[in-house]
Amino acid sequence: MSVLIIYCHPSKKSYTYEVLQLLKSCLQKKQIDFQISDLYAMNFQSDMTESEYQREGFANLDVPIPEDVKKEHQKIECADCVIFLYPVWWSDCPAKLKGWFDRVYSVGYAYGHDESKDEILKMKTILKGIVICTAGYSNTYLNEIGIAQSMRNIMLDDRLGKRFIQKEMVILGGTKDIEKTRLTHKEIITAIGLKLK
User: Fold this and answer.
1) Sign of the CA dihedral 183, 174, 146, 99?
2) Which contacts of 41-48 are long-range, i.e. CB under 8 A and separated by 24 or more positions?
3) What is the mean pLDDT of residues 99-106?
4) Maximal C-alpha separation, the chain
5) What is this structure's pTM?
6) What is the count of structural domains for the chain?
7) Which residues constitute the domain of residue 145?
8) Cα–Cα distance between 164 and 175 in angstroms, integer?
9) For the chain: N or C, fewer Cβ within 10 A?
10) Dihedral of alpha carbons 74, 79, 82, 85, sign
11) Phi, psi of 182 (to 5 degrees)
């Protein structure tokens, strides 16, 4: 099993970063190979350029894919499992992660593949996709107001879609009262690590 973690948070003082460290520890204990795309540390460009829009907006596969995007494609192709780890900001992922999807899920790769363009890599179907997000509000509240289901629809049904065989979303809610939820969250992350083989 090879794991790719797409991590998106600007601060090493955050609870999300603490979750990343716990996840890394679980994977290391199980001797699972993993790599991390830390979008803030990489200064990943989240804004699509005009050239990229010419490719995406008009399905013009003759426009080259940028090198930073190709590097992410290569990481995806080496993974059996992709874990997306981020905080919930305004009912969704941070803009930098949304930009990762905008750019990395490029036409010809993640959708709209043209078999006549042999030089274009087509995204493989990945065994597992796991979405882990930290949220200030409790899971109960997020479920009551419908935000939890909305996030699941966007991440699992659209962004992960048919690109993944097994899909799971874990909302680590209640971080406003982190001392109460920290142990429960640790058990959840440890359980995720145990499921990976």
Assistant:
1) negative
2) 44/68, 44/96, 44/99, 44/100, 45/99, 45/103, 46/95, 46/96, 46/97, 46/98, 46/99, 46/100, 46/102, 46/103, 47/99, 48/99, 48/102, 48/103
3) 97
4) 56
5) 0.94
6) 1
7) 2-195
8) 29
9) C
10) negative
11) -55, -45
Compute the distance between CA of residue 35 and CA of residue 164 in angstroms, rounded to an integer.
Answer: 18
Q: Among 128, 39, 43, 44, which residue's Cα sits nearest to residue 87? A: 39
How many Cβ atoms from other residues are within 10 Å of residue 148's Cβ? 22
Tokens for 72, please give them.
């992410």
- pLDDT digits 0-9 by tens, 111-150: 886 665 555 678 999 999 999 999 999 999 999 999 999 9
For residue 102, what is the domain's CATH number?
3.40.50.360
CB atoms under 10 Å from CB of 190, counted, come to 15
129 is written with which tokens? 């996709």
Helices (H), 30-94: 50-57, 67-77
